[in-house]
Design a protein that fits this description.
heterodimer, A: alpha/beta, six-stranded mixed sheet, four-stranded parallel sheet, 18% strand, B: alpha/beta, TIM Barrel, eight-stranded parallel β-barrel, 8 strands, binds pyridoxal-5'-phosphate
C-alpha cells in the first residue's frame, strides 16, 4: 500500500509549493532516493539511532494499568529516547541527508519544542548552524524547551503572526527556507508539507512500528490487537501504524486534540471537523472555512495545536483503515496524572491524549487483547503548565 | 474560445509600440473592498497596463510582512470572494482593454470549487490567475477548467528553477512571472541575480512576454530591470503606501490618490 513514491495518498499529498522551493524539493527527493538505495546510509542511520538516540526504545508491560483497565497494555517508550521524544528518529535521518547534501544550516519549526530540541541537538552533533521558528504562545507554554534549544547553540525565532503557534511557525520556516534555500536544509517535524516530506518523515519514524512488531512477535508470537497514538501532524502515529497497515487484525487508533470539545469550536480536531484543502504544500484535511481560510485552532498541547493532518492519515481515514478520535484537554490532563500515578511515568501532554483514548475505550478490549500505546514523549516540559492548569502552581 | 485573451492583446500592443508593461498589485479589501475599487481606478488612470489583485489569505506562507499585514486588514474588513468578483466585474466593464489578474493561494480556488471558481471568475471578466503554490506539476488539476473559461494560469519562474525553467517557459501562457530574487514578497534594496543572464536564458526557451516581480520598490529599479524584459510587477511598495495612508488616517479616496501618485512615479503617466 502506497509503496509507490509519487507523493500521493489517494487524492491527498502532492507538492503544492512555490517555484522558489521546487528545485530544492526535487533535490531532496533525489538525495533521499539515493540514500534509500545505499546500504551505507541505512547502516549509518541505524548505528546513529542505536548509539546516540538509545534505540531500540523499551516496549514496557504496564502491569498496574493492565489490571486497572482490564486489558493487556504495553507502552512503547519513545519518551526514553535521547532528547525525550520520538522526534529524534526523524531528525537524525534528515540531518544525515543534510550532511550528504552538503548543507550548512538546519532550520525547523516547532510547537511543543521537542522537534526544535531534536534539531538543535543534531545540529550541535554535526556542527551545523541552526535556526528554529516557534510561535510566541508556544515559547511561553514550553519555555523549558526554548532554553534547551539555546543551550544547544540554536537561535530560536519568535513568531507573532496569526495565532502565534505551530502553523505560524511552519509558515515562517517555509519563508525562511525560500530566503536561503541554497545552503539551508529544512527539517520538517511531522508527516506534513510538500512531497517528499510526508514520505521521508514516515520512513524515519517507522522504526517505532517495526520495533513493536518484532518484539510483540518475539514475546507473544502474535501481533497486537490495537495500536494507539496521538496525532498532531501525525508522525509518531504514522511511524507506529505504518508497518501494520497490511494487517487488518490490528486496530489503528489515533487520538487528535479535542481542546475544549469539538462542539465548542475551540479544538484542533482536524479529522472530526476538517475538510479537504491545500495548505503548507500538501492536499489534506484542514480546519478551514467555506472559502479555504484556515480557522484558528486550540489545544492545551502545543504539539497538536495544528489545523491540519498529514496526507497519509487523511487517506487512512478515508479508507477506514485507521480510526480517529478526539480527546479533550481535560481528558488528556486526567490521563497525564493517571499514567504518572499508575506507572510512575510522566508522559508528554501530547502522548497523554493516546493514554486517554485507551482509558475511554477500555470496554472495547478484554484481558486477552494486547494494546500498545506509543508514549511519544516525556512530560517534563509540561509539568509547569499542567500544574498551572490544575491551580497547583501559580 | 474563439475570443483572444486580452492579456495577449495587451502584450502584442505593448511590444508593437516598444513599451514595457507596468503591473501594480493591490490586496483586495485593504482597507476595504470599496477602497480597492478606487485604488484600481487610480492605478489605471496613472498608467497601469494590467492590474493584479491579491485575494487575501489567512496564512500567506509565501508573502513577506507587508502583504501579510495587508491580508490581515482585508480579512478583518470582511472581504469575501463574492465581493472581489463583484468589484472586478464593475472594473472590467469600465476598462474592457485592461487585463485583470487575481493572485491567490490554490486553497482559495480549490475550496470554493474549481469549476465554480473559474466560471464566476470568467463572468467577472478576469483574464488570468497567478497561483504561486500551483507549480507545473500540479497544474493539471486546474488547467482544464481554466482553459474552458478562457482564463490563463500565469506561470512563475525563479532563479532557483534551474533545469525546470525550460519546461515552465514552454508551457507558459499569457506572460511569464519572473521572480527576480529569492525569498518571499517584499521590498528589497539589493539583488543577487544578474538580470541579463537570467532573462537571456529564459528568452532562449520561449518568446513569451516576461515580467519581473518580487521586491521592485522604486522607479530606478524598475528602469534597470525592464531593459531586460517586457514589464514589471510592483506589489509591496503599493501596499506600503496604503498602510502609510491608513496610519495617517486618510480616507479611501485619498489613499487611492496616493497610490495613483505612486504608480505615476513608476510610469510617468504613459
Ligand atoms: C511528544 C510529542 N508527541 C507528539 C507530537 C505531535 O506530533 P506528531 O503528530 O507528528 O507525532 C509532538 C509534537 O510536537 C510531541 O512533541
Amino acid at each position: 500500500m502506497n509503496e509507490n513514491n509519487s507523493g500521493r495518498y489517494g487524492p491527498y499529498g502532492g507538492r503544492y509549493s512555490g517555484e522558489t522551493l521546487m528545485h530544492a524539493l526535487r533535490e531532496l527527493e533525489d538525495a533521499y532516493r539515493k540514500a534509500q538505495k545505499d546500504p551505507a546510509f541505512g547502516e549509518e542511520y541505524s548505528r546513529f539511532l542505536r548509539e546516540y538516540a538509545g534505540r531500540p526504545s523499551l516496549l514496557y508491560y504496564a502491569e498496574r494499568m493492565s489490571r486497572d483497565l482490564g486489558t493487556t497494555v504495553y507502552l512503547k517508550r519513545e519518551d526514553l529516547n535521547h532528547t525525550g521524544a520520538h522526534k529524534i528518529n526523524n531528525v537524525l535521518g534528515q540531518a544525515l541527508l543534510a550532511m550528504r547534501m552538503g548543507k550548512k544550516r538546519l532550520i525547523a519549526e516547532t510547537g511543543a519544542g521537542q522537534h526544535g530540541v531534536a534539531t538543535a541537538t543534531a545540529a550541535a552533533y554535526f556542527g551545523l548552524e541552526c535556526d528554529v521558528f516557534m510561535g510566541k504562545e508556544d515559547m511561553i507554554r514550553q519555555s523549558l524547551n526554548v532554553y534547551r534549544m539555546e543551550l544547544l547553540g540554536a537561535t530560536v525565532h519568535e513568531v507573532t503572526d496569526g495565532t502565534a503557534t505551530l502553523k505560524d511557525a511552519t509558515s515562517e520556516a517555509l519563508r525562511e527556507w525560500s530566503r536561503r534555500v541554497e545552503d539551508t536544509f529544512y527539517v520538517i517535524g511531522s508527516v506534513v508539507g510538500p512531497h517528499p516530506y510526508p514520505e521521508i518523515v514516515r520512513d524515519f519514524q517507522r522504526v517505532i512500528g517495526d520495533e513493536i512488531r518484532a518484539e510483540m512477535l518475539e514475546k507473544h508470537g502474535r501481533l497486537p490487537s490495537a495500536l494507539l497514538a496521538c496525532v498532531g501532524g501525525g508522525s509518531n502515529a504514522m511511524g507506529t501504524f505504518y508497518p501494520f497497515i497490511g494487517d487488518p487484525s490490528v486496530r489503528l487508533m489515533a487520538a487528535e486534540a479535542g481542546g475544549e470539545g469539538v462542539d465548542s469550536g475551540r479544538h484542533a480536531a482536524t479529522v472530526a471537523a476538517g475538510t479537504t484543502g491545500v495548505f503548507h504544500g500538501m492536499k489534506s484535511l484542514f480546519l478551514q472555512d467555506d472559502e479555504g481560510q484556515i480557522t484558528p485552532v486550540y489545544s492545551i498541547s502545543a504539539g497538536m495545536d495544528y489545523p491540519g493532518i498529514g496526507p497519509e492519515h487523511a487517506y487512512l481515514h478515508d479508507t477506514g483503515r485507521a480510526e480517529y478520535f478526539s480527546i479533550t484537554d481535560d481528558e488528556a490532563v486526567d490521563a497525564f496524572e493517571y499514567l504518572s500515578r499508575m506507572e510512575g511515568i510522566i508522559p508528554a501532554i501530547e502522548s497523554s491524549h493516546a493514554v486517554a483514548l485507551l482509558t475511554k475505550m477500555k470496554s472495547g478490549f478484554t484481558p486477552d487483547d494486547t494494546v500498545v500505546i506509543t508514549i511519544s514523549g516525556r512530560g517534563d516540559k509540561d509539568v509547569e503548565a499542567i500544574g498551572r492548569y490544575r491551580g497547583k502552581i501559580r | 474560445m474563439s475570443k483572444e485573451n486580452i492579456i495577449d492583446t495587451a502584450f502584442r500592443r505593448l511590444r508593437a509600440e516598444g513599451k514595457k508593461a507596468f503591473i501594480p498589485f493591490v490586496t483586495a479589501g485593504d482597507p476595504n473592498i470599496e477602497a480597492t475599487a478606487l485604488i484600481v481606478r487610480e492605478m489605471i488612470r496613472n498608467g497601469a497596463d494590467l492590474v493584479e489583485i491579491g485575494v487575501p489569505y489567512s496564512d500567506p506562507s509565501m508573502d513577506g510582512p507587508v502583504i501579510m499585514r495587508a491580508d490581515r486588514r482585508a480579512l478583518e474588513s470582511g472581504t469575501r470572494l463574492r465581493d472581489i468578483f463583484r468589484v472586478v466585474r464593475e472594473l472590467s466593464a469600465d476598462f474592457p482593454e485592461i487585463p485583470f489578474l487575481l493572485l491567490l493561494y490554490f486553497n482559495s480556488v480549490f475550496v470554493y470549487g474549481i469549476e465554480r471558481f473559474f466560471s464566476e471568475a470568467e463572468e467577472a471578466g478576469i483574464s488570468g490567475l497567478i497561483i504561486p503554490d500551483l507549480p507545473i506539476e500540479e497544474r493539471a488539476e486546474a488547467q482544464p477548467a481554466a482553459s474552458a473559461h478562457g482564463i490563463y494560469l500565469i506561470s512563475m519562474v525563479a532563479p532557483t528553477s534551474l533545469e525546470r525553467a525550460e519546461r515552465i517557459c514552454k508551457e507558459a501562457e499569457g506572460f511569464l512571472y519572473c521572480v527576480t530574487s529569492l525569498g518571499v514578497t517584499g521590498v528589497r534594496k539589493e539583488y543577487q541575480t544578474s538580470f541579463q543572464e537570467y532573462f537571456e536564458r529564459l528568452d532562449s526557451f520561449s518568446n513569451i512576454p516576461k515580467c519581473a516581480g518580487f521586491g521592485i520598490s522604486d522607479p530606478e529599479q524598475k528602469r534597470q530591470i525592464e531593459q531586460y524584459c517586457d514589464g514589471t510587477i510592483v506589489g509591496s511598495a503599493v501596499e506600503r503606501k496604503i498602510e502609510a495612508g491608513i496610519e495617517q488616517g486618510l480616507d479611501e479616496a485619498r489613499i487611492a490618490r496616493s497610490v495613483g501618485n505612486l504608480v505615476f512615479e513608476f510610469t510617468g503617466g504613459k
